[in-house]
Specification:
By secondary structure, the protein is of the alpha/beta class. It contains nine helices and twelve strands. Bound molecules: NADP nicotinamide-adenine-dinucleotide phosphate.
């Protein structure tokens, strides 16, 4: 398939680029700002028609969860208008769209893995714009998939794993919240899941389906930080604190573990979070892992 990747320099876009050579059956076109702005319909339309694109993978987003609270217009422009424009372009050119969304569309009140059809109730600007982006994609009437993911990390860009490695090399103790429970997602695993779904779209040509994908398991940020330090051999004492002891501009869901039953039934493998963390740390620490 001829595949357009938007937001190609971000964590997920870079992870797709990293593995793209393993998929010689596809031709990838990686794009990002400023030359390929997803909020510019003319530009997106030209990219799709000039290159005979059959699938758009939208990795572009406004992802700064705290900053979104003071930049709601910009977050809405990228996460809602951008998503709608890509979905319209996909429909008009009969291309598929795989759009990425987030566990932050949920409110976090429950304690059972969240299914695709569970009620959404975002509690911050970022989550609200991502939910409205999902609705815009569905309303546009193109074919494809919306994949909600969570706690993304990778070798690329800024993320929790890289922040912990940096802080762990500077400090011997650190406090991390233990009362937000979710599942980390290694962006390489998500990239592979996307390409499995891409094959399925091509074969089955469904309408627009929502799927959940994160790694397997459930942890707190405290557990995740502990594992990062343990696996990378950093002697850091981690204190467990409550969310209210670490105030941030945006509220985050207390529980956002995603159920992966639907995506597994579609043939996608879901690696256990700790195994994927080891894989990423191997790359980040260039074989110095003990
Ligand atoms: N990161 C997480 O923990 C997390 C969790 C759940 C879901 N997700 C979702 O997963 C997806 C991928 O996230 P990520 O962590 O890979 O994001 P990321 O690293 O922030 O990458 C997003 C990319 O999109 C680009 N971009 C921003 N505005 C754009 C526009 N108008 N047109 C084209 N490109 C634009 C960004 O460029 P600049 O850097 O120049 O702005 C960046 O290269 C997003 O949909 C996100 O909402 C992420």
């Amino acid at each position: 398939m001829k595949i357009l990747v938007t937001g190609g320099n971000g964590q997920l876009g870079s992870s797709l680029r990293k593995i793209s050579g393993e998929y010689p059956q596809h031709a990838f076109l990686f794009t990002d700002m400023p030359e390929a702005d997803i909020t510019d319909k003319g530009c997106m339309s030209r990219l799709v028609s000039d290159n005979g694109i059959e699938l758009i993978i939208n990795c572009a987003a406004y992802t700064a969860v705290d900053k979104a609270e003071s930049q709601p217009e910009l977050a809405a422009k990228i996460n809602i208008d951008g998503a709608r424009i890509l979905a319209e372009v996909a429909r008009e050119h009969e291309a598929f769209l795989i759009h990425i969304s987030t566990d932050y569309v949920f409110g976090g009140e429950g304690c059972h893995p969240l299914k695709e059809e569970d009620a959404t109730a975002p509690i911050g600007v970022y989550g609200r714009t991502k939910r409205a982006g999902e609705e815009a994609v569905v309303a546009a009437g193109c074919r494809g998939a919306i994949i909600r993911t969570a706690w993304l990390y990778s070798e690329f860009g800024g993320n929790f794993v890289k922040t912990m490695l940096r802080l762990g090399s500077q400090r011997d103790n650190l406090n991390v919240v233990y009362d937000q429970i979710g599942t980390p997602t290694y962006a390489t695993d998500l990239a592979r899941a996307i390409l499995v779904l891409a094959e399925k779209l091509q074969q089955e040509r469904p309408g627009m389906e929502i799927y959940h994908f994160s790694n397997e398991g459930a942890v707190s940020w405290y557990d995740f930080a502990q594992a990062i330090f343990e696996l990378s051999g950093l002697a850091v004492r981690v204190g467990a604190i409550e969310t209210e002891q670490y105030p941030t501009p945006a509220r985050r869901p207390a529980y956002s573990v995603l159920s992966k039953e639907k995506i597994k039934a579609a043939g996608v493998e879901v690696p256990y979070w700790r195994n994927s963390l080891i894989e990423c740390l191997h790359i980040l620490l260039q074989g110095t892992l003990n």
